[in-house]
Design a protein that fits this description.
Length: about 90
């Protein structure tokens, strides 16, 4: 099992509505392409900040690491998103 948490900066957002327009597609893409559980877990009231947490389960550690690495690339490639910090925990 592994959990990744990303602290994000959304420089182009000037309202919570704009923030939702940036965060929702990222969450949907992660769920759809990587079949992971994803939620916005922090910074909900801030326009230009978000915290996403992603959990995955695989048969071995290598599989978990691969999925979380792919999630990191997906978030990094999203429009209007800049990763400030990433925390990964694998058990």
């Amino acid at each position: 099992m592994g959990v990744g948490v990303w602290d994000l900066h959304l420089p182009g957002c000037h309202s919570l509505k704009e923030k939702r327009g940036v965060v929702r597609p990222v969450v949907s893409r992660l769920r759809r392409t990587l079949n992971v559980s994803v939620a916005e877990t922090g910074q909900q009231d801030q326009w230009q900040r978000a915290e996403l947490a992603c959990a995955t389960v695989a048969g071995d550690r290598v599989g978990v690491e691969r999925v979380l690495r792919d999630a990191d690339r997906c978030i990094e490639g999203a429009d209007g998103v800049r990763i400030i910090d990433t925390t990964v925990r694998i058990e």
